[in-house]
Amino acid sequence: MITSMVPSGPAARLDHVLATSRAQQRAALGLYLPVNYPTRSASREALHAMAAHADLVELGVPHHLPHMDGPVIQQAVAQALTGFQMRDLFASTAELAAHTSAALLVMSYWEPIRAFGATAFAHMLADAGGAGALIPDLPPAAVPQWRAAAEAAGLHTVNLAPPHASRARLADLGSSTTGMLYAPASPGLTGNGRPLSPYLPRQVRRLRECTGLPVAVGIGISTPDQASRVSLFADAAVVGSAVIRRMQASPNAPAAAAAAAAADFAEAVRHGPPHAA
User: Fold this and answer.
1) Residue of 125, 129, 130, 147 whose CA lies nearest to 138
2) Which residues are catalytic?
3) pTM metric for this prediction
C-alpha cells in the first residue's frame, strides 16, 4: 500500500529518475559515498563525477558506529568523520542539486539524525535539494517522529526490507515507505563480496506485490556484472563499497577513480557489463 503523500520539489526527482529508467526498460543506477571521504574537497569532486553517470546518488552521513557496514565502508567512514559536521552534508547536497539532475538520497544511521533533530534535519535536507532518506536502523519507536518530519518537509522515506518478512510485515512497511523500497542483494554487511542470492528476483517481485513500490537492490553488488544482472529485475541497482575500493586503490586521484568506477557500472546497468569486467 502506498501512502497518500504526493511528493513535490526535490523529492519528485526520485520519482522522475525511476520513471525515466523504467521507460528505458532498465534499472536506475545508484551510487553511494560517505560525505567528506576521503577529504571534504575530494569528496565533493568525486560526488560530482559520480552524479554525471548515476541516476541516483546516496550521500552517506559518517557515524562512529557503522554496525551494518563492512570493512570498506567502515574505513571510509572513519576517515570521513575527521572534521565532519552536518552542514557538510547539506552543502554537498545543495551543490549536487544545483549542477545535476540525479536524485539525491541520504543514507544515515538514526543516531546522527536524532542528535541533530529530526525536524531540523528533514527541513534542511529538503531545502538543500535532497529527495529523501534511508535510515536502516530506524527504531520502531522513532518511526512516527521521523515520518512526521519527512512528510512535513516533503521528503521520501526509503526503508530497508527484511529478507524474510511476512506479507503482513511488508504491507506495514509499505505503508511507512515512500519513493522506493530497499532490498539487500546478499545477506550480511555491505561490501561482503558474496554471490547474489538466487532468490533475489523472487524477493524483488514479492516486495513489489506486497507494497506496490519500486524496489532498489543494494548491499552486496560488487561488480559491474552483478549490477547488470540486478538491472534485469530491479528498479534500481545501488553500489557503494565497489566504488570506494577503486578510490582506495588510487589515493592520489580518488575522484578520477570514482568517475571510472561510475562509468563502468553505468555501462553495465544500461548496456551490459563492460568487456573488461
Assistant:
1) 147
2) 58, 69
3) 0.91
